[in-house]
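Hi all, long-time lurker, first post. I run a small reading group and we've been trying to get comfortable going from sequence to structure in the token notation. Rather than ask abstract questions, I figured I'd post a concrete chain and ask someone more experienced to write out its structure so we can walk through it together at our next meeting. Sequence below, copied exactly:
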Amino acid sequence: MAARRFALKAVDWMAFAERVPPNQKPMFNALKTRSDSLAAKLASLPENPPAIDWAFYKTAVADKAMVDEFEKKFKALKIPEPVDTQTAKIDAQEKEADKSAAAFIQASKQRVVEHEKELQKVRSMIPFDQMTVEDFQEAFPGSRLDKEKYPFWPHRPIAEL
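-- Answer (accepted) --
Happy to help. Here is the structure in token form:
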């Protein structure tokens, strides 16, 4: 029964291991070992704790009022289970990451279109070995040297080099 309880929160260790960087493999192995030991310990425990035989204690203990008091307190005892407060935050982060990933994919598609246009431009220009200096400067305007403003070589500000 404990296995059924634990199976709901199983971890895909193979997928997890693929995402671990090589320098963090020892920490990952320690985490997996610790997780496996805790899972084995959890699997060895019964689903419900064994029931207390209150009739035996009433016959074995001289003060029956004390046993009745313990039984009443034990039955009134309710141990609260931890409340999951992090799943909603993680789901919100996941939705936000999905939105940012979708935005990145859309921007990447736009960049691909721009780069395709630039690639088409480069493919349609005349070969470099057949270009003159004027053809090259016309194809790549940023390479034009400003000899009037910067009369000495390299004909551009040192900060741009």
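A couple of things your group might point at:
The chain is about 60% helix and 0% strand.
The two ends are 71 Å apart (CA to CA).
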